[in-house]
Each structure stands twice: as structure tokens, then as C-alpha cells.
Design a protein that fits this description.
This protein is an all-alpha fold. The protein has twelve helices and no strands.
């Protein structure tokens, strides 16, 4: 008998992959959130399918968080546009670049590596393709949509047209980069792509060890990419801060939309099963 808050039943395939699978009268469909218990009381709500801890912010709370984040982003945008943040940006970069330990430099370079082309154009669609192959088409679609954070970055860069840090003021690591410094495409894309991947893993993966290890790695990657962009001399502090605010807002909106679409998908599937079995 399954513990409260967990899914009943697990076959060998589920144990090997860590994902929920199989469709039977008493087992959830492939891709069903791991904490969801099949209910016989009728249609499911978003709260039943995605408990608050899994769903992150929701409803009025999510709207408030996004509103505050976007408001702060607007303030930073205005300050940068008027060149009022230059002294703070320069001070933060020089302070961070005082870290001269070889391991720290290698860590900063490794963290930024997935965000450079060509790998930056391969990894996001590859993640979506992998989910599609595993039989998670809805998750694949939303994982691809998470890459849309890069499109937001491109639009804002064209509006801002901020110069990147130069070697006259700070150390700059040679790399294939170009365009405006504001916002940081690395930070926006990491927050969207790897943030949504972490959400899916928290939602779908049942193995505690696998889930915690994967989420820990992804959260660390997101948290470190901002400092790495500053340390390598590719972005200013305000570029990075604004990108976390904007990327986090995009992630919250995307997860909210996914929860509603997923809940509707589960309701339709369970309705078909009930009709087929005459329940």
C-alpha cells in the first residue's frame, strides 16, 4: 500500500528510470506528478495535482512575486539606461576578480561553458527531444518553450545596446560573445531552461536520491552562472541581477501555465478511462 502523498504501484521500468509510467485503472498515466494520488471524487484541481511545495508560487502569491521582480527590473533598466550604475558595476567586478585561486577560475569557466555557441544551441532542444523520446510530449513542448527566455534577451539587448566590459577597466576572458551586455543571455536562458528542468524533475522523478542530486546540480548551475559572467568580464553586475529577475518571472509564468495545462490533460485522460470502464 502506498504512503500518503505518493503514487501507488511501481513496475521495474519505473524503478529503473525514476519516472512514473504505465496506464492502468489504479496507476497514474505516464508523466503524472509523483505526489498525485488518483482521486475517485471527480475532476482534479491544480492544487490536488501540484501540492504547494512542488508548484512553487501560485495564484496571487505568484502574481505578487512577478510584479515585484518586474518592478525592480524596470528600476535597474532605467538606471543602466541613464548610466547611473557604472561605479557599482565596476566595483563589484573588481572585487570578484580578486579571487585568483585556479580552482575558482576553472569553476567559473566551466559554469559558463554550456551557454556559449554551439552548445548553447544544442543543449536546450536536445533536452526537449529527450523528453519526447521518453514519452513526455507535453513536457517536451514546455521545455522547449523555456528556451524562449533567450528570445526575451535578444529583444531587450536591441533596445538597451549597452557596451560590454572592456579590458581597459577589468580583466576580460576571451570568448565568442557579442552584442549588448544588458541583459545576460546566459543567466536568462539558464534560469528558464535549467530552472524548468529542475521543476519537472521535482514534479516527476520519484527516486529521492536521483531527484535531489539532479535538482542540486541544476540549482547550483543557475546560482553560479551569474557570478561567472561577472568574473569572466563578460557582463556587469546589473546585467546579471536584472536577468535573474526577468528569468525568474518568466519561469514562474511558464510553470503556472504548465500546471494548468497538465491538470486539464489528466482530467481528460481519467475521463476517458472512466468512460471506457463504465465507471
Amino acid at each position: 500500500m502506498a504512503r500518503a502523498g505518493t503514487l501507488p504501484g511501481r513496475d521495474r521500468g519505473e524503478h529503473a528510470t525514476g519516472f512514473v509510467s504505465m496506464v492502468t485503472p489504479h496507476r497514474p498515466a505516464r508523466g503524472t506528478p509523483r505526489r498525485h494520488v488518483v482521486s475517485s471524487t471527480g475532476r482534479l484541481s491544480v492544487r490536488e495535482v501540484f501540492p504547494p511545495r512542488v508548484a512553487m508560487a501560485r495564484g496571487k502569491t505568484a502574481i505578487a512575486v512577478v510584479a515585484v521582480a518586474l518592478s525592480i527590473f524596470a528600476v535597474i533598466f532605467a538606471l543602466v539606461k541613464r548610466n547611473h550604475s557604472a561605479s557599482v558595476d565596476l566595483r563589484v567586478t573588481r572585487q570578484l576578480q580578486r579571487q585568483q585561486q585556479p580552482w575558482f577560475s576553472k569553476l567559473m569557466q566551466a559554469v559558463s561553458w554550456p551557454g556559449y555557441p554551439p552548445q548553447s544551441r544544442i543543449i536546450p532542444p536536445a533536452l526537449a527531444a529527450g523528453m519526447l523520446v521518453l514519452g513526455f510530449p507535453l513536457e517536451a513542448l514546455f521545455q522547449l518553450a523555456a528556451w524562449g527566455a533567450g528570445g526575451i534577451s535578444s529583444v531587450i539587448k536591441r533596445v538597451m545596446r549597452r557596451s560590454r566590459p572592456s579590458s581597459e577597466h577589468v580583466w576580460v576572458q576571451p570568448a565568442r560573445i557579442g552584442g549588448s551586455s544588458f541583459p545576460s543571455g546566459h543567466v536568462l536562458i539558464y534560469t528558464g531552461v535549467y530552472g524548468f528542468l529542475a521543476f519537472l524533475i521535482e514534479t516527476l522523478v520519484r527516486s529521492n536520491r536521483l531527484r535531489r542530486a539532479a535538482i542540486g546540480a541544476l540549482v547550483s548551475l543557475i546560482a553560479l552562472v551569474g557570478p561567472s559572467r561577472i568574473y569572466l568580464g563578460h557582463h556587469w553586475f546589473t546585467d546579471v541581477l536584472a536577468s535573474y529577475l526577468l528569468g525568474g518571472s518568466y519561469l514562474l509564468g511558464l510553470t503556472a501555465l504548465y500546471r494548468r495545462v497538465k491538470t486539464g490533460w489528466l482530467n481528460r485522460r481519467y475521463e476517458r478511462l472512466r468512460q471506457e470502464r463504465g465507471i
